[in-house]
């Protein structure tokens, strides 16, 4: 039999009716306009009581940016390392006015005055560890909150290079085992020595071209030898700074392209030395510091040796001639007047020691022509003929069996 329990023995948490609800606090809408005959203190009282947000809530955008950076590093660790190295090579060059284009927005100087390159170099040297450390050591909220403005700009620069730059291409590492078939498909000679890294280059603006169903004539490809510090500008903007009237040279042989790359890399140093000799007011220490073009502001890359770059570019349509697909084009040289007509497709990186050995190998490997297989129509015709032949053989066997009976 149920007994009645006194209400005093019922816990308050189980009897919400007994808990009197507090009266709602009237919330007055803040007024920013001054009423007639009202002092300013009454209007500004709301702003006086405003509490600033805690410090831990401020670096949330930086944490989100670093999370996206780690995702990019985790997806393509070696390609991301190479992208950072390409950028730092352009930023560390003695002619950064020509190589560091486009300029990162975090380090832009006054309009028309270029980049704050010294601040950029110090920020990168102080705040960019190796890519492995970026993945393994996530920072805490307190560490983000204690960063200086230049340190924050350096970390945002990582996000700008790896994630948020629309003009820069996407680099993806490829296995060196595909190099022979790739060169055979593109109609190029294979390097005598294997490159240290082989990467594909893709742009967002070229994704729509994949859905185009209209047949396109087969394009021609060639090697473009570039000094490593010019690679950032060419991949981001498609432009190469050439003297007036001088054409861009591309080759079907990688050895010849590396020789031309070596000639191009020596020209800026000679011009820089001549400008130093003409300037009598510059001190010897400044000359040595400015002449040292091999020092990088980021020394934590996995590629410790200096690099030479070969870019496999798709040539413009006006150069797609029948000679480009003939086996006699081993030493064919292409002349292009405008660099914007070239489309970078693949990137080959060599250590300088390996590139020097390749340049002395002459004439190199011959171009292996690709023997395309039968088309879909031919394969369908062959399959139908085999089926018809099989059916006729069976029908003949049946006729012979009936005739024997």
From TrEMBL:
<feature type="compositionally biased region" description="Low complexity">
    <location>
        <begin position="270"/>
        <end position="284"/>
    </location>
</feature>
<protein>
    <submittedName>
        <fullName>IP12209p</fullName>
    </submittedName>
</protein>
<feature type="region of interest" description="Disordered">
    <location>
        <begin position="270"/>
        <end position="295"/>
    </location>
</feature>
<dbReference type="InterPro" id="IPR041400">
    <property type="entry name" value="PARP16_N"/>
</dbReference>
<feature type="region of interest" description="Disordered">
    <location>
        <begin position="1"/>
        <end position="22"/>
    </location>
</feature>
<dbReference type="Pfam" id="PF18084">
    <property type="entry name" value="ARTD15_N"/>
</dbReference>
<feature type="domain" description="PARP16 N-terminal">
    <location>
        <begin position="72"/>
        <end position="162"/>
    </location>
</feature>
